[in-house]
Sequence to fold (472 residues):
Amino acid sequence: MLVDGPSEWPALRFLLLAVAMSFFRSALSIDEAHLLLKEKMMRLGGPLVLNTKEEQANERLMTLKIAEMKEAMKTLIFPPSMHFFQAKHLIERSQVFNILRMMPKGAALHLHDTGIVTMDWLVRNVTYRPHCHICFTSKGIMQFRFAHPTPPTSENCSKWILLEDYRKRVQNVTEFDGSLLRNFTLVTQHPEVIYTNQNVVWSKFQTIFFTISGLIRYAPVFRDYVFRSMQEFYEDNVLYMEIRARLLPVYELSGEHHDEEWSVKTYQEVAQKFVETHHEFIGIKIIYSDDRCPEGTGSGLHVGTSSSAVCVAWHTIHLSSDWQGTSIDKNILDALMLNTTRIGHGFALSKHPAARAYSWKKDIPIEVCPISNQVLKLVSDLRNHPVAALMAIGHPMVISSDDPAMFGAKGLSYDFYEAFMGIGGMKADLRTLKQLAMNSIRYSSLLETEKNTFMEIWKKRWDKFIADVATK
Fold:
């Protein structure tokens, strides 16, 4: 026989259950808040403490960022998830992008010599200079050469035509110049159709270097090209560059060739000339580099060595393989054993926990080039870039742009946008941006005294930038 308790018991049980659930939720929220705070502190830039003005600027920046991302979640149109060629015009309409263009970004530490000046300049300026000749190889690939009267024929080029005369023959010069621009970049409206795999895009990539080489290696153009590269990055609020250079022979109109020493000296002279009229610009250094080819096909390490006073006197390794477990993938381990001071791309680093821990312990940063990784088909959606996990735990890194001109970009801002909005996700804020900028100074090859001077100049620009964002 069952005996019922007092009639108040059901209500009492409900009350006790409600109290228990409330306590459980409270305890859970405390743990959750603790975990979120811990994650925030672990993120790249997380430990940084912002001053009042920076907090104001951060609030305005994040308001714009969150608004853009919420709109993207509704429309499913989000630039970092799209191919850069299709996303570029959307990025340029972004208010966040406009702020990033204003931001003093410090240094660009991963650049290649023949891919850093906008190709439009090569077409509109260089190909209109006197004595510029064009020829078409048997495979239909363009080659250019400055000479007077005419360049000598070769196996590749049996007939050279003065470009000035060639333009007179074409029906539409604007259309012809547009075709040159298409041949000088990887840009296309339908990249997923044109570049079906890595081999295809890399083949076009290497063809471009072959095509424009005759233009850039002409001595008067070479000087202007180096100057123009500094000007374009300076206009994008970058104050220092480290350039991977192959130091190929440079030629004169007469056909005379200059050696590596001449090229290095010219880099130095042009940089000094630029600094004279742009006093805050720190300068450039060059890293001697071998020919470029896709790491995934079996190429060796790219090791920079000192060649002169303006060259980088240490090692930096270029690694971007996505074939885990292959001999090429193990290059990242070899790089660490060679005492590299930076790792270019480091796309596979997240797959090697021991190497990742070692590089972190030794304070060896990775040079992240988001747009390059996407265009060269290592990752399609930049939200899924392997470095996102490394950014979340504060692994040392810098942002650079590799060969921006090849991708129709300019300077460093486009890559910063992709990293800030795509790789960093909703949680990346002004602290992340500030840390990335400071990292670019910290991990440069400059002497400590030079880094201190650079940091002072950057800090003044940073404070002005913060004041503009916070108050305007």
Notes: The first helix runs from residue 9 to 42. The chain has 18 helices and twelve strands. The two ends are 80 Å apart (CA to CA).
